User: What shape does this take?
Amino acid sequence: MPTATNGTTSLYYDRAGEGDPVVFVPEAGLGGWLWGWQHAAVAGPHEAVVWDLRGTGRSDAPPGPYDLETLVADLEAILADCEFRNAHLVGCGLGGAIALRAARTSSRVETLTLFGTAARSAAFDLEPLFASPADPDALRRSLEAGFSEDFLEAQPDVLEGIVDWRADGDADREGWEAQTAALEGFDATDWLVEVTQPTRVIHGGADELVSPAAGEELARGLPRGEFGRLEGAGHLCFVERSRTVNDRLLGFLEAQTDDPE
Assistant: This one.
């Protein structure tokens, strides 16, 4: 089981495929299952890395609260352990904020793809997505916060699979609260101009946890930011619209590889 270490904290990650590395940064409290749809698509033309935030899954869970700088240092430890000189980062929610902050401070970040991410903590309302991994019914109900009604009605089998994965790999309440504390006071508006990497900000049009307007504001503040909306999709739009998202993600990565300038 590959692990990286930041201080005394062990961080689990999984890597597959070959080529330019793509590192996925998960939403608060959610395990590596979150990126399964993208991991399968990316781990062919690219090397895909999925990891568990401290407090989640197979990574250590030291007492919180955690701050954003610590989570960014955890990401840097993953990149260093994999010996990546450069990597494309893909993040959601808290994971998007971690990736955004890392792009400002790390020389290893080549591009950003951010889902359901905003530039300020006030735009995040992640509480409805949490549920105890020990309570399947609560896990099932909390998915209403992450997905659109259409997806919930059309994909009952997928949702049951997600409930099982969440029960096995999501953070408990203590871990979730420790992670979300990192968003307190987060405000990137004054330093977005320093994030010069090509960035795609993608938002579900029906996202109830981070408003699409906040995603548009984020993209406008980035020197090389572009905004894309997936109408009718919820916060976890990359699960709902996995084929569309995978096509856009692979196209974006290919374009940056062909023309790094």
In short: The chain has one domain: 3-258. The chain is about 40% helix and 20% strand.
